[in-house]
Structures are given as C-alpha cells and as structure tokens.
C-alpha cells in the first residue's frame, strides 16, 4: 500500500511540476528566449540566472501558502481583502483567454510546419486534441500524463538541436556571471513569461485538486515546485545555448520567426521539423494549462461552476480557437494583456505574503522570514517594472 501511495504521490508531484512548466513554455517563451539571445548573445545567461532566482522566490511563496491554507488563490485573496479574489480571478481569466488565442495559434503553426496543413486547420485539430484530454474520465491524471510526455519530448529534441549547434559553453557560463550587458526589460519579460498571470497558480491548484494540502505536505510541495521551476529553466537554457551556437557561427535569425530559424540553421530540415514538434508540444500543453488554471480561478464562486468545471474548460478552449480562426492573433490585445500580466504577479504574490500572517487563513503556521523577505523583494521589483512597462505600452496601443 505504501508503495502504491508513494507512486501516486510522485505522479501528482511530477504532474503539477510539468503542468506549471509546460504552461510557462508556450509559443511566447520560445520566441522570447531565441530573440533575446539574438540581441544579447551570451549575456542573456545573466538574465536567465536572475529570472530563475525571482521565479523561485515567487513560486515557493505562492505554492506554500496555497497548500498550507488548503485554499485556492482567489479564495485566499478574498479573505485578505473582500472582493480582491474576484478582481484577481477576472485578470487571470482575461489574461488566460488572450494568451490561449496565441497558444492555439502556436499549435496551428506547429502542425503547419510538421505536416504542411493550414495553420487555422492545425489550430482546430489541436483544440480537439486538448478537449479530448478533458473528456477522459480521470481528466486530472490524463492532463498530468500528457504534460509529462510532451514536456519530455520537447526537452529531448531540443537537446539534439543544442548538440548540433555546438554552442560556446565556456563563454556562456562566463557571461552568465559577468555579463557585458544587463537589460532589465528582458528580465521582467521572461519572469512575467515564467511566473506571470495564471502560471504561478497552475501547480499549486493542481496539488490541491489531487489532495496534497496542509503543513504535512510542504516537503511534497517543495519537490514539485523546484521540479517545475527546474524544467522551465532547463528549457530556457537549452534554447539559449542552441541560439548561441547558431549566432556564434555568424548566422542571422529570421525576425519573422526566430525559433524556427534557430532550429533550421542548427540542424537543417530535420531541425525545422523538430521546431514544428517543439512548437506544437509547447503550445498545446499551454492551451491545456491555461484553460485548466483559468477555470480553477472561478470554479469556487458557485457550486454550479464547480459541478460543470470540465464543460467550462472545454468552452474556454472553443472560444480561444474561434477567436483565432476568425480574427487571427489580436496583437494589440496580446500586448496589453502581456503588460497587465506583469502586474498580476505583484498583486497575487503580495496578497499571499499578507495571507501567510493571518491566523484565520493559515492557522498556527509560521512562515519563514527569509521567504517573506525574498517574496517582498520580488513584489517590489516586479511592481516597479510592471508599471513601467504598462506606462510605455499603453500609449503605443492608442497611437
């Protein structure tokens, strides 16, 4: 029995970790990682290092308080400030829906590269596959397994591209610790892309749904959280190295599709097909993660919503796909939501840190001081940079 329980626990711990990581690794993640490496070269390693530290600060705090309080993000927010949970849920759902339009588009592009089918048709096929995961009787387990398989495939094939691109690893390591250029905007963008909006809550909410909660389960939560951050960071590092290998040989990336050009320049036509596979895996797992987590933010508001959770997730995917098929990718919406996404993290993380000191939420639990300091630091940095981004983005939208 103990063995069976251990196996089940590991499956849930890994499932939550991969759900968080594959939610983070979407089409935007691939494009940003390759574009920023193209711009900053080996110094992008420093931005990755800082972003990993900030990611850990954000995720550890949020996951821990969700597990200790045995409540979801929006329920905790409503207990800290009445009504705040509804506001956060609204931001997360709007952000999730907008990003899902991009995710569905990315999945369509992936199938277009792999099989030559039209991107819109590819998007519809991908949406049907994602919906299929939620139609399975034990949808939670199916989602965990799917995220693990797709995440594993992505990492393995990207390792192959890194080997063929033969990057200057020594230079990459040196510049990670002593960069030539430090670009703060790059750091904010990739932190927002790894822990912004719904992504931070994907793993914590999944652990709750699987019954991992209470102080006794903090060690399991820690394992899951570190594994999730580790998987997302490993993928970021692999993309960085693959791109560095390509640009160090004097090649120029295609600005229209930087990740595709990295894979193609590194490994020829096979590389281009691998890009299609990576893009599709990244996009479809983000479609699933975004839909699941966005709906987990509203299902606690009424018994009817909770009862029809699967149906609402499916409708969420259908709406994203319909918008992409009819409108295409609404660029301005995505820019605005991207900027708002950067602001969700300081609001949610700040709320969680306040919650950690409220007995009616966490009982007798004592939150470690170093984690509070770490979390507050992330809140201050991300709030400042998020507001700065928003101020710069909004005028361009209405210009």
Biggest sheet features: none
Overall number of structural domains? 1
Q: Name the structural class.
A: mainly alpha
- Choose one word for the global shape: globular
Distance between the termini: 64 Å
What gyration radius follows from the Cα positions, in whole Å? 20 Å
Question: In CATH, what is the homologous superfamily?
Answer: Amino acid/polyamine transporter I
Instruction: List low-confidence stretches.
Output: none
CATH level 3 topology = Amino acid/polyamine transporter I
Per DSSP, the total helix count is 17
Q: Approximately how much helix is present in the residues?
A: over 70%
Name the CATH class.
Mainly Alpha
* CATH-derived architecture: Up-down Bundle
Please count the beta strands (DSSP E, at least 2 residues each). Answer: 0
H/E element string? Answer: HHHHHHHHHHHHHHHHH
Question: What share of the residues does DSSP label as strand, in percent?
Answer: under 5%
The overall pLDDT, averaged over residues, is 90
Q: What would the keywords be for this entry?
A:
Amino acid/polyamine transporter I
């Amino acid at each position: 029995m103990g063995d069976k329980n251990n196996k089940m626990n590991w499956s849930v711990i890994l499932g939550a970790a991969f759900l968080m990581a594959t939610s983070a690794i979407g089409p935007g993640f691939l494009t940003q990682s390759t574009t920023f490496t193209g711009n900053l070269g080996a110094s992008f390693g420093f931005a990755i290092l800082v972003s990993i530290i900030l990611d850990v600060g954000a995720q550890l705090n949020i996951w821990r308080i969700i597990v200790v309080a045995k409540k979801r993000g929006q329920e905790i927010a409503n207990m800290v400030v009445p009504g705040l949970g509804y506001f956060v849920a609204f931001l997360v759902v709007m952000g999730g829906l907008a990003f899902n339009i991009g995710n569905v588009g990315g999945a369509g592009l992936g199938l277009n590269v792999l099989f030559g089918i039209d991107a819109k048709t590819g998007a519809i096929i991908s949406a049907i596959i994602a919906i299929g995961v939620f139609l399975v009787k034990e949808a939670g387990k199916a989602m965990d397994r799917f995220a693990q398989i797709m995440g594993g495939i992505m990492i393995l094939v990207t390792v192959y591209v890194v080997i063929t691109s033969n990057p200057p690893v020594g230079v990459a390591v040196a510049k990670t610790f002593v960069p030539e250029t430090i670009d703060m905007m790059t750091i904010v963008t990739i932190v927002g892309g790894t822990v912004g909006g719904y992504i931070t809550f994907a793993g914590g909410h999944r652990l709750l749904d699987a019954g991992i909660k209470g102080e006794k389960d903090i060690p399991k939560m820690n394992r899951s959280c570190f594994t999730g951050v580790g998987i997302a960071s490993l993928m970021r590092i692999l993309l960085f190295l693959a791109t560095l290998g390509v640009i160090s040989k004097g090649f120029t990336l295609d600005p229209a599709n930087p990740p595709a050009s990295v894979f193609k320049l590194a490994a020829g036509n096979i590389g281009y097909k691998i890009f299609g596979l990576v893009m599709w895996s990244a996009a479809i797992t983000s479609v699933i993660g975004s839909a699941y987590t966005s709906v987990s933010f509203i299902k606690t508001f009424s018994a009817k919503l909770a009862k029809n959770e699967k149906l609402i997730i499916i409708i969420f995917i259908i709406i994203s796909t319909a918008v992409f098929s009819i409108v295409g990718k609404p660029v301005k919406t995505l820019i605005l939501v991207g900027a708002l996404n950067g602001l969700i993290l300081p609001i949610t993380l700040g709320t969680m840190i306040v919650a950690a000191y409220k007995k009616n939420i966490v009982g007798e639990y004592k939150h470690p001081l170093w984690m509070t300091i770490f979390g507050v630091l992330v809140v201050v940095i991300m709030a400042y940079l998020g507001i700065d981004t928003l101020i710069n983005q909004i005028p361009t939208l209405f210009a």
